[in-house]
Amino acid sequence: MTTAYIVDDQPLVRAGIGMLLSGETDIEVIGEAASADEALREVRRLRPDVVLMDIRMPGMDGVTATRELVADAEADRLIRVLVMTTFDDEDVVIEALQAGASGYLLKHASPTEIADAVRRVASGDTWLDATAATRLVDKLRPRGCDPTDITALLTPREQEVLRMVAAGLSNTDIRDCLVLSEATVKTHVARILLKTGSRDRAAAVALAYRSGFVRPEDPVPS
């Protein structure tokens, strides 16, 4: 069962999304909050699989809240945040993704899309609204950054995971080497694909070799 927590300052939005998700047999809404401050306290206590976070709220905004939640459990279990917005505000969405959000969802998305997004993010994947995915990947790259400059695109942990993927290690192998949960490894891989604009692991590995980030003679990470 996937557990979800909803954060939005509008009661009708919380009620609508809560009702929609509660109709899914494999998703349980275990709480909701009208502010980011309240959400931080409750999410840390309840530990839901996915937090659906409104970006713009009075007081603390959704980006700041996302950054704090993701920082809480980097080593053991990443807290997965799916940010929600009612408008196409790319810059704020990018801030949320850079803060560690696992996906971006429009509030007017179809019921099927919302439920699927929660499932995908809970499993460690990334979810982006299809109409904005290409633009977001381009804008996620630092300004003036060569798209093959891996060290500018990825965090140190993501670089470490990419080296292991390039060496042929499976998610299970990486989990054991880094002492992480397999879902956390999967989330790191998903973020690597997102930030590099790679369609799959093979494309990310090809980019890593093509850019010189890894070389055939490099020792296998352990």
UniProtKB/TrEMBL annotation:
<dbReference type="Pfam" id="PF00072">
    <property type="entry name" value="Response_reg"/>
</dbReference>
<keyword id="KW-0805">Transcription regulation</keyword>
<dbReference type="GO" id="GO:0006355">
    <property type="term" value="P:regulation of DNA-templated transcription"/>
</dbReference>
<dbReference type="InterPro" id="IPR039420">
    <property type="entry name" value="WalR-like"/>
</dbReference>
<dbReference type="GO" id="GO:0003677">
    <property type="term" value="F:DNA binding"/>
</dbReference>
<dbReference type="InterPro" id="IPR011006">
    <property type="entry name" value="CheY-like_superfamily"/>
</dbReference>
<feature type="modified residue" description="4-aspartylphosphate">
    <location>
        <position position="54"/>
    </location>
</feature>
<feature type="domain" description="HTH luxR-type">
    <location>
        <begin position="147"/>
        <end position="212"/>
    </location>
</feature>
<dbReference type="InterPro" id="IPR016032">
    <property type="entry name" value="Sig_transdc_resp-reg_C-effctor"/>
</dbReference>
<protein>
    <submittedName>
        <fullName>Response regulator transcription factor</fullName>
    </submittedName>
</protein>
<dbReference type="InterPro" id="IPR058245">
    <property type="entry name" value="NreC/VraR/RcsB-like_REC"/>
</dbReference>
<dbReference type="InterPro" id="IPR000792">
    <property type="entry name" value="Tscrpt_reg_LuxR_C"/>
</dbReference>
<keyword id="KW-0238">DNA-binding</keyword>
<keyword id="KW-0804">Transcription</keyword>
<dbReference type="GO" id="GO:0000160">
    <property type="term" value="P:phosphorelay signal transduction system"/>
</dbReference>
<keyword id="KW-0597">Phosphoprotein</keyword>
<dbReference type="Pfam" id="PF00196">
    <property type="entry name" value="GerE"/>
</dbReference>
<feature type="domain" description="Response regulatory">
    <location>
        <begin position="3"/>
        <end position="122"/>
    </location>
</feature>
<dbReference type="InterPro" id="IPR001789">
    <property type="entry name" value="Sig_transdc_resp-reg_receiver"/>
</dbReference>
